[in-house]
Amino acid sequence: MTDQQIQQDLTLIKQMIEKTRRDTAQSGYFFIFIGIISLLGTVAIAILENLDLKQWTTPTLILMTVANAVIGYRIGARESQKVKTYAKIVFWHVWMACGFTALLIVFFFPAVHLYPMTAVPILVSMLMGIGLYVTGILLELRFMQWSSAAWWIGACLMAVIKGPYQTVIMVAVILLGWILPGYILNKQYRRRSTP
Questions:
Q1: Domain for residue 125, yes or no?
Q2: How far is 91 from 123, CA to CA, in rounded Å?
Q3: For 13, which of 43, 78, 150, 173 is 20 to 30 Å away at the CA?
Q4: What is the pLDDT of residue 22?
Q5: Overall domain count for the chain
Q6: What is the rounded distance in angstroms from the CA atom of residue 194 to the CA atom of residue 192?
Q7: How far apart are CA 132 and CA 145, in angstroms?
Q8: What mean pLDDT do residues 34-43 have?
């Protein structure tokens, strides 16, 4: 094999790797839309509790959960049609597992009086931190791994700081831990998608 053939083969391999990266990249819409719905739901629940309409908290949580599930499913179905890779398959399974666990944390365990509802945002934040960290490893995105720290720091802050400040912390965590990484991921995706 000549040096020229080796160089051509290396160039071809680099092009194939770049094409695979472009095709398998996540668009970031999953995090952006889930983040927006969660942000709106968090603010709505805070307003309901402030107006002493706590009876509407659970229906709002159910609505937010259903909206997130539908959006997540639709985005997952659309993005899975492009190219199926092991990383993509694991990505969607990680978030399905996190979603199912979040359902238990939010609805089942408080209903059987395992812990009070005030513990729910703390536990969900810890879980979302794990999901985001694993996603960062899967997609080899260091910024996403760092964004997971927002969820864990937020969980610690919410455990220590009680009252209406918990809502402010949760809003900040959703912005830093979902919407911002989704936006960065989307920006990278659009840049890679342009030939």
A1: yes
A2: 21
A3: 78
A4: 47
A5: 1
A6: 5
A7: 7
A8: 92
Which residues have a Cβ under 8 Å from the Cβ of 93 and sit 6 or more positions away?
A: none
Q: What is the pLDDT of residues 48-102, one digit of tens each?
A: 888 888 888 888 888 888 888 888 778 777 766 665 677 777 888 898 899 999 9
- Identify whether the C-beta of residue 110 lies closer than 8 Å to the C-beta of residue 122: no
Ranges of H-type helices in 51-179: 57-80, 86-103, 109-111, 120-138, 142-160, 165-174
Written as six digits, the tokens of 55 are 């009876």
- Which distant-in-sequence residues (6+ apart) come within 8 Å of 120 by Cβ? 105, 106, 110
Q: Is the pLDDT score of 16 beyond 60?
A: no
Q: If you average pLDDT over residues 99-113, what whole number do you get? A: 93
Evaluate whether residue 159 is within a structural domain.
yes
Degrees (nearest 5) of the Cα angle 76, 77, 81? Answer: 110
Q: Is residue 5 part of a domain?
A: no
**For residue 39, what are its two tokens?**
């942000």
Name the residue range of residue 101's domain: 27-188
**Token representation of residue 116:** 């009070």
Q: Which pLDDT score is estimated for 20?
A: 45
